[in-house]
Design brief:
The chain has about 110 residues and is an alpha/beta fold. It is about 20% helix and about 30% strand. Strands 3, 4, 5, 6 and 7 form a 5-stranded mixed β-sheet that branches. It has a two-stranded parallel ribbon with strand order 1-2.
Length: about 110
């Protein structure tokens, strides 16, 4: 039996394959009976009304900005970056428009 990890995240997704290409996280497929009642607008609207916002470490927010665009997501522009506790941060959205935050750290 696998050992539990002391940290992590779960994102419930309608299209888990699409998000799995974007996130290196545990992403669970929503059961079809539930997913049938979920509509994702085209283009998707930003989902901001959630109590959970993931933050992920990256070595370069600028490089992550380009990678996110290639994978169907996006990061806010450099003008919306900020520092908190001395660490540069930036919000973004994944392909299903879930909001996340990146923090630039030496890796």
């Amino acid at each position: 039996m696998p050992q539990p990890v002391p940290y992590g995240a779960v994102i419930y997704a309608k299209d888990y394959r699409l998000l799995a290409k974007f996130h290196q996280l545990v992403i669970l497929q929503i059961p079809e009976r539930i997913a049938a009642n979920i509509t994702i607008d085209k283009p998707p609207r930003k989902r901001e009304n959630t109590p959970i916002e993931l933050f992920l470490n990256v070595s370069s927010i600028e490089s992550a900005r380009h990678a996110a665009r290639l994978l169907g997501g996006e990061l806010n522009g450099p003008e919306k970056e900020w520092k908190f506790h001395g660490i540069k941060r930036c919000d973004g959205i994944d392909p299903e428009r879930n909001v996340f935050q990146l923090q630039e750290v030496s890796v």
